[in-house]
Amino acid sequence: MSTAAEVVHARMKTVPDFPEPGILFRDLTPVFANGPSLRAVVDGLIEPFVGLFDAVAGLEARGFLLAAAASIDAGVGVLPIRKAGKLPGVTLQETYELEYGTATFEVSPDALPKGSRVLIMDDVLATGGTIGASIELIERAGWEVVGIAVVLEIEALGGRDRLNNRPIHSLVKV
Questions:
Q1: Is residue 47 annotated as a catalytic residue, yes or no?
Q2: Phi, psi (deg, nearest 5) at residue 136
Q3: Given 6, 39, 60, 62, which residue is catalytic?
Q4: Domain range list for the chain
Q5: How many other C-beta atoms can be found within 10 angstroms of the C-beta atom of residue 25?
Q6: What's the pLDDT tens digit per position in 103-113?
Q7: Which CATH number fits domain 51-173: 3.40.50.1010, 3.20.20.210, 3.40.50.2020, 3.40.50.10900?
Q8: Catalytic site residue 62?
Q9: Which of 55, 56, 146, 162 maximizes the CB count within 10 A of its CB?
Q10: pLDDT tens-digit profile of 128-169?
Q11: What is the DSSP string of the chain?
């Protein structure tokens, strides 16, 4: 039986010069598109946090895939962290830096009871901007971040350093 990291290495595609020259894009689509691979990845992501969370937060968009599967696997709820303008009613918003500008995430503050323990899940940890914004939103809503689980961590971009010693579980580091 392969480990989750072995599954990711076996199925992930590396696409040179996408979305621009000099970038090596790590395409996880083949990992997610294969049922047994997706199962192995989801199990591997939640393993260090089993029993510690009440909901899984998925970051738009690929984090939704992982968080939904993980929430079913763990028998807990899923919390969507959405791009601005996608949620009705009152929302909390957090703006973060992108390579060329800014973006905003939002969450419905009444989606979970106060004090809920949340595991943040996304496909890639790069600079830490999106995950950092989601941490801010979760804590402002009155919930507790118990950890961060990602499929792929791009170490050279230093995202882990921006997340203030949070528990981070990465299946693969490049």
A1: no
A2: -60, -45
A3: 62
A4: 51-173
A5: 12
A6: 999 999 999 99
A7: 3.40.50.2020
A8: yes
A9: 56
A10: 999 999 999 999 999 999 999 999 999 999 999 999 999 999
A11: ---HHHHHHHH-EEEET-SSTT-EEEE-HHHHHSHHHHHHHHHHHHGGGTTS-SEEEEETTHHHHHHHHHHHHHT-EEEEEEETT-S-SS-EEEEEEETTEEEEEEE-TTSS-TT-EEEEEEEEESSSHHHHHHHHHHHHTT-EEEEEEEEEE-GGG-GGGGGTT--EEEEEE-
Asked if residue 15 has pLDDT above 60, the reply is: yes
Buried b (16+ CB within 10 A) or exposed e, 26-53: bebeebbeeeebbebbbebbbeebeeeb
Closest CA to 120 of 35, 52, 57: 57
Extract the tokens encoding 82.
């959405």
